[in-house]
Amino acid sequence: MRDHHPAMSENHPALSQNHPGVGQGVYLYAVTPAGENGTAGASVERAERPPDLRGVMGGVVRPVPRGGLVAHVSDVPLDRFGEEPLRRSLEDLDWVEGVARAHHRVVEALAAAGPTAPVRLVTVYTGEEQVRDLLDLRHDDFTEILSRVAGRREWGVKAYLRRDTPPPSPAPAATAAGGGDSPGMAYLRRKKESLRGREDLWRAAAERAELLHAELGQIAVASRRHRPQDPQLSGRSESMVLNGAYLVDPAREEEFAAVLGGYRDRFLDVELTGPWAPYSFTSIDLGAGRAGGVR
Amino acid sequence: MTDPRSRPVLRESSYGPPAVMGRESTNLGDILERVLDRGIVIAGDIKVNLLEIELLTIKLRLVIASVDTAREIGIDWWERDPWLSGKDRELVEENRRLRERLSAVEERLVAWEERTELEPGERAQERGPVERAGERAGERRGDRQAEARDRRLGRPGGTEPGRA
Q1: Residue A286 with chain B: CB contacts under 8 Å
Q2: What is the nearest CA distance from A188 to chain B, expressed in angstroms?
Q3: Is this model's pTM higher than 0.80 or not?
Q4: Among B20, B47, B17, B23, CA closest to A102
Q5: Domain boundaries along the sequence of chain B
Q6: Complex ipTM above 0.90?
Q7: pLDDT tens across A185-199, in order?
Q8: Which domain covers residue A247, as residue numbers?
Q9: Best mutation site among A93, A148, A216 for testing chain B: the one with the most B CBs within 10 Å?
Q10: Per the record's keyword annotation, is Transport included, yes or no (chain B) (predicted)?
């Protein structure tokens, strides 16, 4: 990997010095094992990653190797990624979307090549030296995390309450009987009945979702249950009753898919996403309050 | 996505909309959820207020997208929700009729009040001491007229009352 970036040996000064003009920060995407030649990833075959990988704001992603680990970074201008600009930019969903997609693209490319521990969005350092310090300081944590996800893939499973299912006890008779009611009264009554029907459906669907999660968890190496997404985030109007993430061995993916098939019924609509880089299984707080590098 | 070579097993299943297949069209919500909420959390040198990130994720759940952006990224659920999109034409129509009738009733009520307030002697007996009756009736009439005006002005549906 280092062959693609001959200028980036460990004792080379930070690349940011090669960029005149505004101050540069170093944006960290993910940490991986160093690969066949490294110590941490010695047991894992690591494919070559795309040589011309570009990240946030089109910056070229380069490796920063240290002690058997590699941090993958790119330069970002501090007039956009400094503390004050960031505070404003994070309010802008379009800006966040651009950064999120770029971040995700880099993480995906790295994950396609081997074990990858993604770092949360907008983790920015003042220089490469600080990133190397981080790899020294957190060497054991990163190594442990990477060995946990090696050779496995994350799948997302979202289960929604089926909306097109008619309520268990439709009551058109009652509506007809109340012929004297105004349309408004009749509407309110229908709405009430429909809500009661929805509650029953919700309960049944939630129970099915519990079973689904438990069964998938049996097949997966690890599983996490996340907060169900709001309709505005999921983009679907139906209520989400399960938002699960599962780390699955490739050998068991078929089995995993088969379980999903068994849960598509009149209560649940099941949606599969992925494979994802193992975001949900590298979810660890390495002390956000403490300095990762030298301040 | 992670490894295209060994994708088929789950890819061939029929779950999920086509949107999850392509990289760029991967559901933004799913991406944001991951890059903001998960992965390794570690301090950079640039201090990002973590509270702000938390707030951001909350905001994303409540959606801060403009309507156009929202549509672009597939967040247009309200347009399909019959309870919000006005597909209940019957209800909308009834609502309109009720507003008209309410306005008409209000108009008649105001007219009636104005008529009755012009007979302070009669009303004063109900209210108390005779010496204050004229003054109070005057005050009240003014208040009520103002209130009635406010009601009419403050209620858009009432600006075109059915004057039946």
Answers
A1: 40-42
A2: 10
A3: no
A4: B23
A5: 4-80, 89-159
A6: no
A7: 887 777 777 766 777
A8: 153-277
A9: A93
A10: no
